[in-house]
Amino acid sequence: MIIFLQPMNRNTWQWLARSRLAEAKILFKARKHSGAYYLSGYVIECALKARLSKKFKKNIWPNSPLFKSIFTHNLVDLLKATDLETALQSGSVDLRANWGVVKDWHPESRYAKQNRTAAREMLKAVDHHQHGIFQWLSLHW
Q: Could you please report the per-residue DSSP string of 2-62?
């Protein structure tokens, strides 16, 4: 069982997503491409969990075995748990392409070396001003 030190509510997940995006940009500019790649994916995990929090009483993330299926880092599974999968599929070609980049992220990425190109593509897919997955999710949380 996961025990959070503070209540993980929608606001906390939103704050984490925004903060990790800012950190990913700093890391990319500092040529820390592996860290930028990893945090960029984590941004989407947090944003999806912010969306999922809307489903729970007082937007507080449940700390219960009954909700075990949402205690995942798999972005595809998290998207399925939201009601946004159809909206994504009917989104723009660019939005869907960006999801294609982002969806394969996993927490084990923190152990992998990423080059500048991979980090740039991930950060772009997450943060594109018009078709970024983070921007799209933030409209729905």
A: ---SS--BHHHHHHHHHHHHHHHHHHHHTT-HHHHHHHHHHHHHHHHHHHHHTTSGGGBPP
